[in-house]
Amino acid sequence: MRSINLDMDALRSFVTGMDAGSFAQAADRLGRSTSAVSAQLKKLEDQAGTVLLRRAGRGLVLTEAGEALLSYARRLLSLNDEAVSALRSAQLEGWVRLGLQEDFGETILPQVLGRFARAHPKVRIEGRIARNSELKAKIATGQLDLALAWDDGLEKAERIAALRLCWLAGAGEAAPLREAGEPVPLVALEAPCLLRQIACDHLDKQGLAWRIAFVSPSLGGLWAATAAGLGIALRTAVGRPATVTVLDPAPHGLPALPSLGLVLHRAEGSANPLTDHLAAIIRQAVQEALQPG
Fold this sequence. Notes:
D-Maltodextrin-Binding Protein, domain 2; 9 helices; WH-like_DNA-bd_sf; LysR_HTH_N; DNA-binding; transcription
């Protein structure tokens, strides 16, 4: 069977279109016309020998083959970009400073550090795991170059994902630990905490009484208290330990929850090849972490 080399530009248009939500937006991001992007997608389907997208209403959705290719395309582009960056920037030296929410310390940070170190072996990276308020403060004062944080809507930043919020309880518990009519026991991080505030606001809107059953300065403490059955927590499922399970809100009388944006903050004047590449690696790692399975 003759080997087929998939077109990298076409793969990039394909991935950018899916990430942007439309291929018209992808064309803007890539500096191409919409017709040029459409031609690339047609070329990609010809190379793949199958249909990758189908119409659904006014938009396009992935076929089963398209879903499979999207996963491979992300990996191919990531490796391509890493190789190009390594060749072009092998002699770059210096350091960059990155901050992340604690939720992503185990799921995303190892991938980010590994890829960046391979591409820039002479560059030092300083990492900080912290809460939203601290990350934004250090970005504002120039103590961090990049920060991956929750979108509180107060500052303008690059939105790179949206994560579904969920109620969480100990994996061994069949229901939240409260008797009928008793306040909902909450396990939360110390204030100020955006997710703590969202939990309280949604319970208030549904007319449910609540009490803070356990407060922790760290995510590890929050997971431990939740797993022990001291109460329920509001978080995303990213980084959730096996001892904690996601609750279906309706059977437990809990309010449905929205998604929460994940944004990438940049310090003013921090744009350079190093921070640009680190930002690209972060975007890729986030997308991979959010893929099903």
